[in-house]
Every structure is written in structure tokens, then in C-alpha cells.
Amino acid sequence: MVTTTESTAYETDLDLFSDEVLLEPFEHYRELRDMGPVVYLKKYDLYGLFRYDQVRNALNNWEVFSSAQGVALNPIANEAWKNSILCMDPPEHRKIRKVFDDALRPKFIRKVAGDIEQQAETLVDELVQRGEFDGVTDFAHKLPVSIVMDLVGFPRDEGRDKILGWAVNSFNFAGPPGERQTASLPLAQAQLEYLINNAKPENLLPDSFGKVVYAAADRGEITHEEAVTMMLGYANAGLDTTINAVGSTLWLLARKPDQWDAIRQDPKLVPSAFLEGIRLESPAQFFSRVTTEDADVDGVTIPRGSRVLHSYASANRDERHYPNPDTFDARRNPVDILAFDSGIHTCPGRTLASMEGHALFTALAKRVSKIELTGEPTRTPNSITRGLDTLPIRVS
Ligand code: HEM
């Protein structure tokens, strides 16, 4: 690390996207926060924001920190996603955003996805009977997969299994150039082809998001290309993020029996505890923006045209904002976390993810007094997301 002049960023040689750092990132994030308000990541030619205030301020200033040149960390993904809502500034963003907002209101979700609480109760009943299960594949996967696939309207066939694999892959596709990104390319192509060939309007479930966006395209409000991109974005954004949030929160609770006891005694703590799990593990660790002019961040100049990475995960553990940031506190209720972004791109799926998480952990709190790990969880490094692959659990 070298310091140049006061108005330029601290520089680091740290490889933020190495497997080693992605698997154990939090100590590195703390060091990056301590270096200064802006850190230049030499290996990736990226300016990085790691502190809470700086990340939130940038996210709320889309005129300077723009999404229009893409939010991914490589040019191939930014070109492929150029019609995605993620990669738009106003006024284009407003038109597409309205379609997402309408389709992610609780009323629409309940109409299409049915009784989420009942689905959670049925699943947890079955898992409690088994006693031992996998906290990711048996517990965290089920609701997001069936609900998001129904909402988008994908036919209920074997294509659904592929879609989940593609969604995980799409986040590596958005990472910096390197092995993980190269390996993701064929799968990203396969996903697009599946959508174009199989997710045609006539194949989609009635009343689904897919039907809504194709109808908007037929009316000329959006193009058909935009309709396909929206379905792709919805599936990619809504699956792995929620699965990671649920799996990670279960893992944290298995290691904190006193916190689980508190939740069982007062199940009204479930929403706060679920947010706390998301704060600590941040299912999406980072995205990026490009500066439209020289940007002053606490006295440090980021030159116009620079790609700026913002770390939700580091901001959510910033000791300047949260006391004892590394401690899981079921009562903290961190409603201001940045894990769902902030500003105009704030996640429109936050309500849906919360409905799923609350339903699952409430059903568990009614039936289970003890959550124990029966082995080591596993995780694969991903360029954007953080979550477990497997989580061996026993409940009683
Ligand atoms: C715990 C679960 C989730 C987390 C942590 C999460 C996180 C995020 C983040 C950080 C962004 C902003 C990205 C950026 O601006 O660069 C975002 C946007 C988005 N999310 Fe989520 N998300 C979650 C669940 C969902 C679900 C369930 C859906 C839909 C089914 C969804 C759909 C979207 C969409 C469509 C956007 C783009 C919004 C825009 O650009 O205006 N997300 N999400």
C-alpha cells in the first residue's frame, strides 16, 4: 500500500477476487476501510469504496456514479446486460422499474405464488420429521426456486433446475476478467438461448411476470428484447441472493444458540434476525458504477470515467456505522443495511426475499428448539455473491 498525495486514493496490490480473499473477506475489508475513504485496486484498475457513508452516498448520486455503462466488472457482461434495468440511469430506468415494482408488490406475489407461509410450514414440517437435512439444498433452495420460477412464469419442467445453475453462474459472468469469468461464458450463452427458445409467451404460466412483460412489449411500451432481458434479470437476481440470505442466516443461528433461544421466545424478532444475517453475510458483496465527472469523495478525487466498485459487504460491517459490527445480534434490526443497495436501484425484490425468509424462520421457531451443525459447511468462491453450497444440520 502506498499513499500518494492527499487528494489521490490509497493504492493496494491486494487481489480482492482471489479465491482466498473471497472465501474469508472480512478482515481484508476492514483493512481496506482503514486505508481511507477511497482505495485504488491496482490489479483491477478499480477505485473501491468500502466504508458505509461513502458507499451510501455514491449509491444515492446516480448522476455522478452512473450505472449506464454497466455495473458488472468486465466489458463482455456490461455489453450483454446493456438492456438490463441494472445498467440504466433515469429516464430509461424509470419505465422499466415501474414494471418490476408492480410485479413485486405483495399483492401480485401472493396472487401468483400462493400462500408463502403455508409453503414454509409444509417444508419445515417435513424437515423436522427427518431431523437431519442440508440447510442449503433442502431448506434454503425450496421457496425461492418455486416462488421465483412461478412468478417469472417458467414452465414447470426440468428447465427449472438448469435456471438455478445459470443464476449462480451469472454472478461470475459479472465478475472481473479472469478464470471464473471465462468459465461462465458458455453457461451465460446457454441461459440466453433457453429463454429465447423456451420461455416464449405461449409457454409461460398465466398471470406471471413473463406474461406481463410480453404484454407490455406487444403494446409497444418496451421492446421484445427488453422483455427477455427483464425475465433473465428477474430470475438471476431473485434466486441465489435469497438462497444465500436464508442459508447464511441458518448457519449463523446454528452457531449462536443463545440468539436462537431469544428468537424462539419472541418470534417477533425473526425480521430483525433475518436482516442481521443479511447484514453480516451480504449475499451480493459488490457491484460497480462509472463516474460521469471528477468525483470528490471526502477530499479524494476519483477521475471522470473511472469504474468504481462499492462493497455492500464491507459497508455493512463498518465499525464507523454499526457498533460491534462482527457480532450477530438478533435484536439489532439493521433496517438501514446496504445489502439491498440504496437510491434508485434499491432492490425491488426486498419484500419478496423478506416474506420468504420470515416465513421459513417463523415456521422453524415454532417447531425447533435446537439447531446444530453436524459437519463442516462448504462454499465455492463467487465473484459477486457470497453463500454456502452445503450446510449439514440437525434440528430437535
Ligand atoms: C436477500 C435477497 C436479495 C438481495 C441481497 C438483493 C440485492 C440486490 C442489490 C444489491 C441490487 C442492486 C444492484 C445494483 O444497483 O447494482 C438489487 C437489485 C435488483 N434486485 Fe435484488 N436482491 C435480493 C432479492 C431479490 C429478489 C427476490 C428479486 C426478484 C425476484 C430481486 C430483483 C432485483 C432487481 C430486478 C434488481 C434491479 C433493480 C434496479 O436496477 O432498479 N432481488 N438486488
UniProtKB/TrEMBL annotation:
Which CDD domains has this protein been placed in?
A: CYP199A2-like
Task: Write down what this protein is called.
Answer: Cytochrome P450
- What protein family does this chain belong to? Belongs to the cytochrome P450 family.
Natural source organism: Amycolatopsis deserti
